[in-house]
């Protein structure tokens, strides 16, 4: 059997995990909102029309923040259409997804629902077709107690207390030519700076995210971030990163190395942020908001230009396999490894649209394969991330060059003493025995080893077989001379919990 080894030492701290690393994203796109979280006629719907069965799985997933309402959608959105009596709200053509937006869910309903499922909203403003005026009015509507036009309107619409939304995105992917209101870096930088300044005048306590590149293959990647941050550095708190991964052809080895690509992407953006910091002699650090990430089979999508206009159509409802779940698990390892700079991340999206949760109109709800590594990492990956450096076999990929077979990170909960190790075995055929050196925490013993793997790596969960793929508890761990050894099955995501022996 192949062997890998790593050492756990509580002295090698990277940073405390910001719980917002486990955020997700609700866009008015396809069936994420309509027949996803919201379906008034559904048997489980609450008095506001939100599905109880979907809400239950969202609570289980427990995302602390939910980015809303887009995505590309926000760049053509008129937020005022989604407030006030529902019967008066207009049906509008959404140009991003060529869909009819009925506006039956708007900011008031969304914020109320998000809090009911235990999340905080992360609100995006439209810097595509709109600008400063619409953005400051929205902050006034949501965050001021009353006594002004927009805050009084919120009260009249039935929400007496301010929503108090703390986290705001200054637009979405404005570097992309597909974006409604696409801009050059200089155009976006000016607009983002002035909008940030004005929004902070309404509520100085808010945190702001400037748009970084839509993805790292954009021709302007790097220079876009540098231009935007040069103009906005002292006005924003985070710069955004977006990245979607998919298997190309039959090159599974490269796809499994997606986490290595994410590592490099994050490190490039950190370098740009710190370059601008140095040039401008700024004191503070700008941190990273990886506010869209996931596996997304874009090659299966017809493209937004080719869509027929429809009301909440089925868009990009990717069905995820075991391999996809292992990749999602490894992307979470990459995010955790950079917990000193990545403070916010959002799995895109929450329901139906490239999502861990699927629902059928008038029908059931189920967990995709990707739900499991995400939910378990979110639940147990809290505390201080420790630097671990696995030593072991490597393999060659056409995309990322030589990558380690085993990728891992560890999180130390200093209150309970529990150390949780997250590890993937990217070898598609062979298990790997992982030796975990715990000499600096000698009282640790195995708590549990849970793994996601399957003899069919293409297996998925479906409406008919909702639990075809679930995590398995393994009992293969041995302990000897300050080392705990666990066997990571071929092509697997693993969570190994070590607790102080009683
Ligand atoms: O999540 C789907 C889309 O991907 C979002 O609307 C956009 O921001 C990104 O390109």
From TrEMBL:
Matching Pfam families: Alpha-L-AF_C, ASD1_dom
Q: Which residues form a coiled coil?
A: none
Bilayer-spanning residue ranges = none
Q: Which residues form the Alpha-L-arabinofuranosidase C-terminal domain?
A: 291-492
Keywords, in A-Z order: Carbohydrate metabolism, Glycosidase, Hydrolase
User: Which domain of life does the protein's organism represent?
Assistant: Bacteria
Catalytic reactions on record = Hydrolysis of terminal non-reducing alpha-L-arabinofuranoside residues in alpha-L-arabinosides
User: What Enzyme Commission number(s) appear in the record?
Assistant: 3.2.1.55
- SUPFAM superfamilies linked to this entry: (Trans)glycosidases, Glycosyl hydrolase domain
Q: What class of enzyme is it?
A: hydrolase
Family affiliation:
Belongs to the glycosyl hydrolase 51 family.
Q: How does it assemble?
A: Homohexamer; trimer of dimers.
What protein is this chain from? Answer: non-reducing end alpha-L-arabinofuranosidase
